Amino acid sequence: MLKLGIPSPALRQEHRIAMPATPHIRWTQRAPVARTRMRVAALLFGAAAWAMALAEPVEVSIACRCVEGGVNGSEARWLKRVVIPEYVAAAKAQGRDVAVKLREFAGSAEQMSQQLALDFATGQGADLAEFDGFQIPGFVDAGLLKPLDEVAGADANAWEGWSHIPDSAQALVRFRGKRYGVPEQTDVRMIFYRRDRFRAAGLDADHWQPRSWNDILDAARALKRHDPASYPLQIDAGVAMGEATTMQGWLMLLAGTGEELRDAQGRWIVRSPGMLAALDFYKTVYIDEKLGEARTQRLVSGRNRSFTDFQRGKSAILIESNWFYYTAIDPQGDFPIPDRDELVGWAKMPARTPGSAVRGQDFVSVSGGNSFVLNPHSNHPHEAWLLLAFMNSASVLRSYQEYNEHLCVRDDVLPPHSEFLRASGRELLPLTTIRPIDADYEKVSAEIQRMTESVIANKLSPRAAMAEYAAAVKQIVGADKVVALDTSAATGVQAPAIPARTTGADHHAE
Q1: Cα–Cα distance between 207 and 184 in angstroms, integer?
Q2: Which of 418, 434, 450 finishes a domain?
């Protein structure tokens, strides 16, 4: 018999559908539907979030030592008015929403370098940063920079612009066979002279071209005789002048002797006849004959003061970068000479004697140049590379010439208006040399500055100053990376000169 009130299993099975569902049974039946709705909702939410992410523009930034209305103001204006808006528009036309920010830096070049080192070390900073090529080795060895193709990918090597940048210019950003940036502009160095002062002293004011160091000294002597209160010759020396001492002064003289900072094996030359001749030249100018004002070289504001002296005619011969002509003494520059083109001439820097310069040349020049590198910590490295390639395209760089006419490294971008830039580039770029791309360069350069200051301050003789330099560089790079050449037969290049004090320190340069 069946007990009343309890259906049999068969009856339960037969009437299962008709039995009222409990809450648990209702949830169990609806669970698959609910889970499906949740999955759909999640997918829709994810798609919406993805769409929102796509809607927000990718932001990349550029850091430059430039400020609109301040230092390198023309560069800031070009970046703001041409590069950024045109790149944003070009990216939009290709379906990419990009925002570009400019980080302007008003400090010195040294302060900019320090800021970049801090940024790169901490994973901060702009995606693109303006850079001086000689700093690349130090940043690389410190782990702060990576090769361009490692950051941006293979597109960096396939860029069409490389075919328009000579190897000599690419060397400005190449280290150990790898490119670390894109060079944009370069410079050359020469002698500027005041035609009005030359005429007053009876010198050739229109076609002066010295053929040796003695020709430069003879012109300075004539100017000094005409105006004994003047200091007619200015060539950078000392610590306060910083890298200008190395570039505008030391390297120009050393190249004129046929030597460079390192030998063919890459060893740093710490004693040589060429070095001694260059230091003797400094001694003649600043100590023996007072053709230049030694005090100016040692002032913190000395370089600006040297520009003011040239502007006012207190000095009449100045060895400088072409930047000096088209920026510093431009009629609208910081040291304006209203009738600059009539009053200021330029000449090639001669070898010590004809044919004695590097590569057997009669004349020399030295080139540097700015470039842009990619921050290895960029959140958008591919977009940063696209921006870098865009701003170094021929059409965009031609627009820069309208803001700041200069020597561009691309062979298809020429100065459009300035005959001075065209002529100086044509004459001097084939003769030029560059600083060593070496991690120890900056430290060695600082020792060069100290060595020249020891001479122009009359603290040490040229030989003793050279010996101190040798000891310092040996400490920096190691004894196996230096070489000392025989100077026993070395003589000065000028006469009359006060004999240099001799010391036993020369022996320690070995």
Answers
A1: 32
A2: 434
Q: Which of 253, 188, 199, 250 has the alpha carbon at shortest distance from 223?
A: 199
Render the burial of 392-415: b for 16+ CB within 10 Å, e for the rest.
bbeebbebbbebbbbbbbbeebbb
Residues ≥6 apart with Cβ < 8 Å to 482: 267, 268, 269, 270, 470, 473, 474
Task: Tell me, yes or no, whether 309 and 229 share the same domain.
Answer: yes
248: containing domain:
189-366+437-509
Whether 373 and 429 map to the same domain: the answer is: yes
Report the domain count for the chain: 2
What is the residue-averaged pLDDT of the chain? 87
Give the mean pLDDT of 349-356: 98
Residue written as tokens 């083109």? 341
Name which of 208, 345, 276, 314 is nearest 500 in CA terms. Answer: 276
Question: Would you say residue 48 lies in a domain?
Answer: no
**Alpha-carbon dihedral sign for residues 247, 251, 253, 255:** negative
Write down the residue that tokens 């830096």 correspond to: 105
Q: Which residue has the higher pLDDT, 213 or 488?
A: 213
DSSP three-state, residue 479: helix
Percent of the chain with pLDDT over 90: 77
Question: Whole-model pTM?
Answer: 0.78
As a whole number of angstroms, the distance between CA 392 and CA 403 comes to 15
Whether residue 484 sits in one domain with residue 421: no
- The one-character DSSP state at 263 is -
Q: Is residue 32 part of a domain?
A: no
